Amino acid sequence: MSTRAGFVALIGEPNAGKSTLLNRMVGAKVSIVTHKVQTTRARIRGVAMEGDSQIVFVDTPGLFQPRRRLDRAMVAAAWGGAADADVTVLMVEAHRGVSEGVERIIEGLADLGQGRKVALAINKIDRVPSEALLGLSKELNDSYPFAETFMISAERGHGVDALRGWLAEVLPEGPWLYPEDQIADLPMRMIAAEMTREKLTLRLHQELPYQLTVETEGWEERKDGSARIDQLIYVVRDGHKGIVLGHKGETIKAVSKAAREELEEFLGRRVHLFLQVKVRPNWLDEAERYSQMGLEFKDGNV
Fold first, then answer.
1. How far apart are CA 254 and CA 199, in angstroms?
2. Cβ of 188: how many Cβ atoms within 10 Å?
3. pLDDT for residue 111 is more than 90
4. pLDDT tens digits for range 161-213
5. What is the fold of 188-292?
6. On the chain, which terminus has fewer CB atoms closer than 10 Å, C or N?
7. Where are the domains of the chain?
8. How many angstroms separate the CA atoms of 91 and 25, rounded?
9. What spatial distance separates the first Cα and last Cα of the chain, rounded to whole Å?
10. Is the pLDDT of residue 23 over 60?
């Protein structure tokens, strides 16, 4: 029996549910999920098996109007993921409808050229009545020739199996790209850093998280089977360092505890997590930080 394998890019506006869908498709948490927008920075790949097909998901940053260098790198990564993929899935939030952002994305899809397999996934269908869904589907399909349309709830799992089954059928024939038991091609160091950044994002004031980054500086395997993980949290101002630490260190302790517990569950063993906060005013303009996040460092506009 022939096998199939290929890359599927999930694109959409920030907070459209791409990370939630990826995690549900893969069956494990490989992309951070928060209620704050623009939390996905790197093109995180999750690997899902469906019959004889291996689906490699590229979870791209949300597409939005870029303002800063980091924004431009994130948007470039998203379009790069769509351009390189065998299949693209545009995710649209049912209750937000056809926003200006969605219109811009559809224009961008048209610019990528014809002959692409692009599916439409209308997400969060439980938030609107069914007649509104039909109208939204028609409006979107009138604006772009989608290969298929799926009504899903990534959070609850509704419609996800149908989408995964269709993707498995349309991927090109060929050998699998990763071992059968591998769920992501990110190094564990980056997954660990993303988990800590998620806890910071959830805990801190909404303006701060986009001005910090987390790097795993050290990873030591211990004889008792546990792991010691040392991470650096970079912020751009002294005042931010105080916010991350919190009163008497309460915030950083809570973040460390939550991140350690999730890492232990993910790895299936004990973890000793040590966090340090450092002020690095220009990290948003350092090429090295971008390569750590899997993003391209570039000047000018996208």
1. 9
2. 15
3. no
4. 999 999 999 999 999 877 766 555 556 777 788 889 888 988 886 556 457 88
5. GMP Synthetase; Chain A, domain 3 (3.30.300)
6. N
7. 4-170, 188-292
8. 14
9. 44
10. yes
Q: pTM for this structure?
A: 0.58
Structure confidence at residue 94 as a pLDDT band (50, 70, 90): very high
Q: What is the mean pLDDT of the chain?
A: 80
What is the Cα Rg of the chain in Å?
A: 20
* Residue 34 to residues 19, 40, 67, 194, 267, Cα–Cα distance (Å): 9, 9, 22, 12, 21
SS (H, E, C) the chain: CCCEEEEEEEEECCCCCHHHHHHHHHCCCCCCCCCCCCCCCCCEEEEEEECCEEEEEEECCCCCCCCCHHHHHHHHHHHHHHHHCCEEEEEEECCCCCCHHHHHHHHHHHHCCCCCEEEEEEECHHHCCHHHHHHHHHHHHHHCCCCEEEECECCCCECHHHHHHHHHHHCCECCCCCCCCCCECCCHHHHHHHHHHHHHHHHCCCCCHHHEEEEEEEEEECCCCCEEEEEEEEECCHHHHHHHHCHHHHHHHHHHHHHHHHHHHHHCCCEEEEEEEEECCCHHHCHHHHHHCCCCCCCCCC
| CATH class label, 4-170 | alpha beta
pLDDT-derived band at 242 (thresholds 50, 70, 90) equals: confident
Give the angle subtended at the CA of 176 by the CAs of 174 and 178, to the nearest 5°. 155
Identify the residue with better confidence: 109 or 82.
109
Q: Which residue has the tokens 């090429």?
A: 287
In angstroms, the CA 228 to CA 230 distance is: 7
